[in-house]
Structures are given as C-alpha cells and as structure tokens.
Amino acid sequence: MDDVVYITETALTIRGTRRRTTVPKTIVDTLGLLNGDKVRWILFEDGSISITKVKRPSAGDLE
Predict the structure, then answer these.
(1) Rounded Cα distance, 56 and 63, in Å
(2) What is the pLDDT along the chain (63 residues), one digit of tens a residue?
(3) Using CB atoms within 10 A of its CB, is residue 57 exposed (0-12), middle (13-18) or buried (19+)?
(4) Residue 51's domain spans which residues?
(5) Where are the alpha helices (DSSP H) in the chain?
(6) How many domains, in total, are found in the chain?
(7) Could you tell me the sign of the dihedral formed by the alpha carbons of 51, 8, 2, 29, in that order?
C-alpha cells in the first residue's frame, strides 16, 4: 500500500433507476475533475473496482 495516496468511503444513493455516488473532494481536486468529466469503472472478478478519470481529447487529437 506504499503507492496509496488517499482512502475514504462514500455512500451510494439509489432512488428508483437512478444510482449516484459522491466523489470525495480530495479526489475531485487532485484529479482536476470538472462537471461533465467522465470516469471509467472497471469491475474485477474478485469484486474489487478500479475507477479512473477518462482523459478528454486535446485539440491536437481531433485533427
């Protein structure tokens, strides 16, 4: 766990078909997440999950 920067827990809110979770402020600030940014959820067979920020294409990538 030497490479772990931050650990916390958040609650999952489920109302009908809507499922929401709160991203901790420390993670939002560290990753520079903005409204509309995307995150990728990866579920492993052992039940663990990896969540990563999806990089936005830069202007050079669109050419």
Answers:
(1) 14
(2) 789 999 999 988 998 888 888 999 999 999 999 999 999 999 999 999 999 999 877 766 655
(3) exposed
(4) 24-55
(5) 25-31
(6) 1
(7) positive
Alpha carbon distance 7, 50 (integer Å): 13
The answer to whether position 42 is within a domain reads yes
pTM over 0.85: no
Separation of alpha carbons 60 and 24, rounded Å: 31
How many residues are listed for the chain in this entry? 63
d(CA 16, CA 14): 6
Predicted confidence at residue 63, as pLDDT, reads 58
